[in-house]
């Protein structure tokens, strides 16, 4: 019987806008996925291809989100852990072990191990990194249509010069993280719509 080992990773921690997104993935023992690595080391095309292959081969995969108001309320570290917690709980199967990218444990009682740079070293975490990145990119593409002018589809909410210029001229939107440096200064007189 196969041990159900879930890899979990998150993306979007350093962004000024949008959610933190986590993915959890359980791979079969006999998976065949070439070029698995940290999603940041892959091209968009390669990530998209691998995401399809991961979903086709995985025993289970799921996502967890933490949105800007929650991030502001509990801080980015806690929001990232909350997103990872949700991703693992959303799996259709309960894992026997959770391998977490980084050095922070998820606040639950499932057996877990933290692995620094796990997204480059552990296939399950690499797969989670790729799924989290591809779904977050899609979310940011859709948010760009709802909140035009910021260039969210291009920079995905990161603090690029283009994004900072848009914040300076437009002020923050409801999907910006108002407590983050770069947004905080632009939003002093802004009241969120939600």
Characterize the structure shown.
- With 194 residues, this protein is an alpha/beta fold.
- The chain has a single domain (5-145), classed as Ribonuclease H-like superfamily/Ribonuclease H (Nucleotidyltransferase, domain 5).
- The chain has 7 helices and 5 strands, in the order ββαβααββαααα.
- The chain has helices at residues 44-57, 68-74, 76-89, 118-121, 123-146, 152-155, 161-170, and strands spanning 5-11, 20-26, 60-66, 97-101, 112-115.
- It has a 5-stranded mixed β-sheet.
- α1 (44-57) crosses α5 and α2 crosses α3 (76-89).
- The longest helix is centred in the C-terminal third of the chain and has 24 residues, at 123-146.
- Residues 189-194 have low confidence and may be disordered.
- Belongs to the RNase HII family.
- This is Ribonuclease HII.
- One of its GO terms (molecular function) is RNA-DNA hybrid ribonuclease activity.
- Its cofactor is Mn(2+); Mg(2+).
- Keywords: Cytoplasm, Endonuclease, Hydrolase, Manganese, Metal-binding, Nuclease.
Spell the H/E element sequence.
EEHEHHEEHHHH
Helical content band: 25-40%
Could you report the average pLDDT, rounded to the nearest whole number?
93
Report the sheet-strand fraction: 15-25%
Oligomer: single chain
DSSP strand tally:
5
Whole-number count of domains? 1
What CATH architecture label applies? Answer: 2-Layer Sandwich
Question: Main traits of this protein?
Answer:
single chain; 194 residues; alpha/beta; Nucleotidyltransferase, domain 5; 5-stranded mixed sheet; 5 strands; globular; RNaseH_sf; RNA binding; RNase_HII/HIII_dom; hydrolase; endonuclease
